[in-house]
Amino acid sequence: MTTAAIDDVVMTRGSGTALDVSGMAGTWQCTNRNTTGIIGFTIRAAGGRMYLNVTSRRDGQPFEWGEREVTPYANAFDSDKVFAFTTDYDFGFQRIHVQSMPRRGVMVFGTLTEFTDDSGRIGSFVREFFYRIRP
Q: Contact, 32 vs 94, CB < 8 A?
């Protein structure tokens, strides 16, 4: 995989404030090489917005979830750096809410999954750690 940060700023919705996404933009890989879930993701900024594309395993093969715009958050009201983000993926039979933030040099990536297909399956919370692949 290659990484690309087209812009290094993201606009917060409605504020007109540019946020610095350079600390997050790029390709991230799971620290657990034996994970059966998310193996990596890419974050990019373009046109004043921030986007996420997740890759997991499906039947043993890489499966891309598709690119979604994320909602960025700073860690203080007067900060211009993106510190965390959220987004949602809807696969029809399940909805996955993503929350992520950096911590001690890795990206903490949490997913909350709910099943929407009336199967009766209970939802889950999964947290994994990722490191950035340097270009």
A: no
Per CATH, which fold does 9-133 belong to?
Lipocalin (2.40.128)
Q: How far is residue 104's CA from residue 122's CA, in Å, rounded to a whole number?
A: 32
| Per-residue model confidence as pLDDT tens digits over 53-109 | 999 998 889 999 999 999 998 888 778 788 899 999 999 999 999 999 988 889 999
CB 93 within 8 A of CB 105: no
Spans of all domains in the chain: 9-133
Buried b (16+ CB within 10 A) or exposed e, 39-67: bbbbbbbeeebbbbebbbeeeeeeeebee
Q: Which two tokens stand for residue 100?
A: 């992520």
Nearest to 101 by CA among 78, 81, 124, 77: 81
Q: How far is CA 60 from CA 9, 34, 84, in A?
A: 36, 11, 30
CB 110 within 8 A of CB 11: no
**AA identity, residue 9:** V
